[in-house]
Amino acid sequence: MSQFLQRFSATLANDEHAVMVLDGAGWHASLDLVVPSNLSLLRLPPYAPELNPVERIWLYLRERHLSHRVHEDYHAILDAVCAAWCQLTPKRLRSLCNYPWIRQVNT
To answer: Using CA of residue 17, residue 57, residue 32, residue 29, what is the dihedral sign?
Structure first.
């Protein structure tokens, strides 16, 4: 995660500062995490899926394409995941992630 933050930080202009919204994954809160000075991390509160739109994407993929299935092997699983991912059109993503608060901040 520190390497990702460093690389992302390097893409910002000298006069830019970015705020990155993170969920509660362990590597997002590691004590060893190095945060560049031009980044701020904003951690979401636990159990607040309405603040993290990607949760609805994972739910959609599980419910519609990935759960209750048996696959022959690793490659069949990978194929199923790729096929499910390809169902995420821009229109579908907008419908899944269209929380009222997003419409207020989206420009």
So the answer is: positive
